[in-house]
Design brief:
Distance between the termini: 34 Å
Strand order of the largest sheet: 13-19-18-17-16-15-14
Helix content: 10-25%
Order of helices and strands: HEEEEEEEEEEEEEHHEEHEEEEHHE
Number of strands: 20
Strand content: 25-35%
Radius of gyration: 23 Å
Shape: globular
Largest sheet: 7 strands, antiparallel
Structural class: alpha+beta
């Protein structure tokens, strides 16, 4: 092992952050509300576990382990009848609690065990499941997702599968020193860290920015320029990024009052090794006083943000490939806010495959 690798291992206490699982005792987004009509089911995954997300014909949500207790075939191959799921193979029926309530050829006195049920709720147009200790679920439900529900903002969904461990996503957003990556979209931007704060289950960092080369695009300008006072320029905006385990928030102010940009992100691990995730989020831009101005610029906002997220996705997937080739976390981190963040993710996650938690 090289001296650099040993130093990197020492900086994380000898623990591989990329083998730290997301803690199951939190709510994780698993689907968009609009994807699931009454009387339908969706097949989803959380950390390798198959999950059937169901909306009964009365509109109520529930989530079950997506395999029949009989022959283990996916329940989503079956049908929804009222508030019951019937397996498409032999017609075994399950209620919202996962109880087997009917085996057509046995009778009610000989019903077998059922399947696992997950707490399932909707918040601001996203469906969440709680894969951990269900007694903790109600107290940990997020009340809102950024500015998604606020009428003064225009919001777009952020939605993509990323072939990388969720911790790479946290680091990528938290560390604004990577603006060189986005030089084709924004010119050359210099980030200046203004301060950092952290607690037991959260970490926060502040930035301001200056452009050293190039010019802003229409999309970038629509996000912050429409609300900036004439004459204001570099080093006047404030960006605050907060990891509040297990979610992330990004907000930008260009003066007093509400943020001009609010981003909420949640990362749901997909496979058992958690080397891939589905990123769900909302990007909300404050509406300027002139009606219709933001709507006219919205196609450019969409193009700009999609290009930024595309570059971020590509780079974190490269990080995952490098980790897999090296067989270890060789991150040699020098930026104090990221050291804070890494310590938080280690503290609040669960080492894979053995235990440890932050409760």
């Amino acid at each position: 092992m090289s001296a650099e690798t040993m130093q990197a291992r020492r900086s994380s206490g000898g623990v591989d952050l990329r083998r730290t699982d997301a803690h199951p005792d939190y709510w994780y987004p698993i689907a968009w509300s609009r994807e699931l009509r009454p009387g339908r089911m969706l097949a989803r995954r959380y950390a390798g576990d198959p999950i059937a997300v169901v909306r009964g014909q009365d509109g109520k949500l529930f989530a079950l382990e997506n395999r029949c207790a009989h022959r283990q075939v996916p329940l989503t191959h079956g049908v929804v009848r009222g508030c019951t799921v019937k397996c498409g193979y032999h017609g075994w029926a399950y209620n919202a609690d996962g109880d087997c309530i009917d085996v057509p050829y046995l009778g009610p006195e000989r019903l077998p065990n059922g399947v696992r049920a997950y707490p399932c709720r909707e918040v601001d147009g996203l469906i969440f499941i709680f894969p951990g200790d269900a007694t903790l679920a109600e107290a940990r439900l997020p009340p809102s997702l950024g500015a998604r529900a606020e009428r003064g903002y225009k919001t777009r969904e952020l939605n993509r599968e990323v072939a990388a461990h969720y911790t790479f996503m946290h680091e990528n957003l938290f560390d604004m020193n990577h603006q060189f990556l986005h030089r084709r979209q924004m010119g050359t931007i210099k980030a200046r860290c203004l301060g950092r704060r952290h607690g037991a289950d959260w970490a926060e960092v502040d930035y301001t920015f200056s452009r050293t080369e190039g010019a802003s695009t229409i999309g970038e300008g629509a996000i912050v320029g429409l609300m900036r006072k004439q004459g204001d320029g570099d080093n006047t905006d404030l960006m605050t990024i907060r990891t509040e385990y297990p979610y992330q928030h990004l907000r930008v102010w260009v003066g007093d009052g509400e943020p001009v940009l609010s981003v909420w992100l949640g990362y749901t691990p997909l496979d058992a090794e958690q080397r891939s995730n589905r990123t769900f989020g909302y990007l909300s831009v404050k509406r300027p006083k002139i009606p219709g101005l933001l709507e006219a610029a919205w196609p450019f906002v969409t193009i700009f943000t999609e290009n930024i997220f595309k570059e971020d996705k590509e780079i974190v997937e490269m990080e995952q490939v490098a980790h897999d080739a090296q067989g270890d976390d060789w991150n040699n981190e020098v930026f104090p806010p990221i050291r804070d963040l890494r310590a938080l993710l280690l503290r609040c996650g669960v080492p894979h495959p053995d235990g440890g938690d932050c409760r």
